[in-house]
Backbone:
């Protein structure tokens, strides 16, 4: 009998519909110079002006004149693509300049650029086992999918410690062979709750047990620390971290990912990681734009944007809290509003979009655990006071319309 492939595909999609977590993407056209405003094209071809409230271009750098100028300049100078993998003709002066900028940002000897932070996490974590035979990786339970995938694909021993639970991590470290090579992998900001990892306490444990440290600063680079190097910089811990992972696609507003570490470690990852070796490098114009963004955010302009970013987040949280909405507030720039049900979450998201032109994507399993579905708002320096007013009024109306609980703030 022949395999019914179509039936298997239908069944897999139906499972998502049944759980109310089938994902629909909306078609938007961001308008340069107008962020966070965009135009939504509906399935029937009609259009609506919307405000994007769930983007990760946290500082609006995707429309920064200096970034765009650098991209135009490189594009005109060199053409579209890089033309090769890093090994075979795809290493250009723009890639090298970007890596120098990133190494300087993090106070490390070297940096290595990948096509995304997902690939950087996956490629690095899976390759470390080849460099350190017998490596045990201690991974926070809420680490991003890219880290989980890297740890899993590398094979070998792994220990999952309860989220941000330093006592649990200590117990796991203490239970293993003191002579075994060890690495602790965690994030500085967990993007769905917006909570911070206990960087100093984890570094203390790493010192005590002779472990390496690996931090994902994807939701922090550009936004925290005096030069935008992340939370580890802000907390004076950057020098204690062995490998820092970041993205160029969120606060830096462009595309790509990287690690920063010692020259030796970067050389080893460069030499062994298939996810680095066997793929075409970033287009030079992308590397040039990213480098311009990193450079800008290191300076005074970056300081001003970071202050305004935090102010916007504080204002939005204060106003939503004042209406009794269940905000998850850990003091970061991320503003999650707990809904707790995938169907309600989707209905509210659809109504906000249709009625109010407010775009906030529902966040469901597996991005967050079932029962913790939420709307995740990302206020930015380019959201105006009028945008915040409209959002707050619309959320008030939605909560009344759906008769949802007005709870005390969570956390
Ligand atoms: N790490 C974390 C914590 C993330 O949230 C994400 C993306 O959302 C990534 C890594 C991947 O970043 P990129 O979009 O550059 O692949």
Residues:
């Amino acid at each position: 009998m022949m395999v019914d492939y179509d039936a298997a595909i239908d069944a897999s999609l139906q499972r998502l519909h049944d759980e109310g977590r089938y994902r629909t993407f909306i078609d938007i056209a961001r308008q340069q110079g107008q962020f966070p405003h965009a135009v939504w094209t509906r399935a029937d071809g009609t259009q609506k002006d919307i405000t994007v409230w769930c983007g990760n271009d946290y500082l609006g750098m995707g429309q920064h004149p200096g970034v765009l100028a650098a991209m135009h300049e490189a594009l005109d100078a060199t053409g579209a693509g890089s033309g090769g993998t890093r090994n075979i003709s795809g290493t250009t002066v723009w890639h090298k300049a970007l890596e120098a900028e990133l190494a300087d940002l993090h106070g490390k000897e070297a940096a290595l650029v990948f096509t995304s932070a997902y690939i950087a996490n996956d490629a690095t974590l899976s390759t470390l086992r080849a460099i350190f035979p017998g490596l045990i990786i201690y991974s926070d339970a809420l680490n991003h999918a890219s880290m989980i995938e890297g740890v899993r694909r590398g094979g070998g021993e792994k220990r999952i410690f309860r989220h941000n639970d330093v006592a649990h991590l200590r117990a796991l470290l203490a239970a293993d062979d003191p002579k075994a090579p060890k690495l602790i992998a965690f994030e500085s900001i967990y993007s769905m709750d917006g909570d911070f990892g206990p960087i100093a306490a984890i570094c203390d444990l790493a010192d005590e047990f002779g472990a390496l440290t690996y931090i994902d600063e994807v939701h922090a680079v550009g936004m925290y620390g005096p030069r935008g190097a992340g939370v580890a910089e802000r907390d004076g811990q950057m020098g204690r971290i062995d490998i820092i992972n970041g993205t160029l696609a969120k606060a830096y507003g462009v595309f790509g990912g990287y690690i920063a570490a010692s020259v030796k470690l970067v050389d080893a990852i460069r030499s062994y990681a298939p996810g680095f070796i066997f793929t075409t490098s970033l287009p030079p114009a992308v590397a040039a734009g990213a480098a311009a963004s990193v450079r800008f955010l290191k300076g005074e302009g970056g300081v001003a944007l970071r202050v305004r970013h935090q102010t916007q987040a504080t204002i939005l949280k204060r106003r939503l809290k004042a209406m009794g909405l269940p905000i998850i507030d850990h003091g970061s720039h991320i503003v999650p509003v707990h809904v707790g049900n995938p169907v309600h979450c989707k209905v509210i998201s659809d109504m906000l979009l249709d009625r109010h032109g407010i775009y906030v994507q529902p966040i469901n399993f597996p991005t967050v655990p079932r029962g913790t579905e939420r709307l995740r708002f990302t206020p930015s320096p380019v959201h105006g006071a009028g945008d915040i007013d409209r959002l707050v009024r619309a959320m008030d109306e939605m909560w009344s319309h759906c008769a949802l609980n007005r709870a005390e703030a969570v956390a």
About this structure: The first helix runs from residue 5 to 18.
